[in-house]
């Protein structure tokens, strides 16, 4: 069992590392969102944008250095990464609009619920576009 799990992790190393790095970006995103919504009483959509941007910048820096290990065309890669993040943010904002704005779900649980969809979307787009060799 342990060797099977290890072989799966090795085969999917890039995705696993992307998820670990993404977790740090998501954590920063969620912290900024929570502070802005809870402490500063900022509108949840504005807080979502601010948190998302902070998490995106952190994820780009860490993915560039440790996962995809790219050093060339950093400005173009960052713009591409931000474009992919923008698509993720639009998806997140749409989900939040429906779940919080229309269905009156808990703002924090709704935010957490967007993560799975966004991770899969962004990993595949970033792997194919932003960090292609």
Key words describing this protein structure:
single chain; 133 residues; mainly alpha; 85% helix; globular
Q: Overview of this structure, please?
A:
- The chain has one domain (2-130).
- Helix content is 85%, strand content 0%.
- It contains 6 helices and no strands.
- The protein is globular.
- The mean pLDDT is 89.
Beta strand %: under 5%
Computed structural class: mainly alpha
Order of helices and strands: HHHHHH
The backbone outline, from C-alpha atoms, is globular
- Specify Rg, calculated over alpha carbons: 16 Å
State the total count of DSSP E strands: 0
Number of helices: 6
Mean pLDDT: 89
- Whole-number count of domains: 1
Low-confidence stretches: none
N-end to C-end Cα span? 34 Å
Helix content: over 70%
Summarize the main sheet: none
